[in-house]
Design goal:
mainly alpha; 434 Repressor (Amino-terminal Domain); 2 strands; globular
């Protein structure tokens, strides 16, 4: 699933580690999310949306296959 996490993170001048610390996950999880290799749980997606003050739909770009 594509997402806007990298651009949102960079806009707020957060490092991958900063975001990982705020979410309580590893930096590797953030890397995997940004590269589209990992789809988060609904709870993690919700926490990400709260950090960026956006809806889940604004961050994660669902494309039917």
């Amino acid at each position: 699933m594509n997402n806007n996490i990298r651009s949102l993170r960079e806009t707020q001048n957060l490092t991958q580690q900063d975001l990982a610390d705020q979410l309580g996950v590893s930096r590797q999880t953030i890397i995997s999310l940004e590269n589209g290799r990992y789809n988060p749980s609904i709870m993690l997606a919700y926490r990400i949306s709260r950090i960026f003050n956006l809806t889940i739909e604004d961050i994660f770009l669902f494309e039917e296959e």
